[in-house]
Specification:
alpha+beta; about 40% helix; globular
């Protein structure tokens, strides 16, 4: 229940536009997914996920891999700046690894 309140509070403050879309991250017990979303058009511009991926490692390493992949895909669609949406997760551990890897690849938020 607390996580749902935290997610709603976070989403109420951020909004993705065409110039600065939203980077939404979902981390489950098994998989990690990141999406770049334009909230004005209600479309997903790019996404990266560990589902079906051959990448090996612990979950923190997989988070870093997904962060790098989503940043590479953002470059392809010419997106440099995003709004970071961590959802209900705290900015620590896997979330931090994903964000730092995306920043290393050139994504700004």
């Amino acid at each position: 229940m607390k996580a749902e309140y935290r997610k709603n509070r976070t989403r109420a403050k951020i909004h993705g536009t065409a110039e600065r879309p939203r980077l939404s991250v979902h981390i489950s017990n098994v998989h990690i997914t990141a999406q770049i979303i334009d909230d004005d058009k209600k479309t997903t511009l790019a996404y990266a996920t560990t589902i079906g991926s051959k990448q090996k490692g612990n979950k923190t390493e997989l988070s870093a891999y997904i962060g790098a992949e989503i940043a590479k895909k953002a470059k392809k669609i010419k997106v440099k700046k995003v709004v970071f949406d961590r959802g209900s997760r705290l900015y620590a551990g896997r979330m931090n690894a994903l964000a730092e890897a995306a920043r290393k690849e050139g994504l700004e938020f």
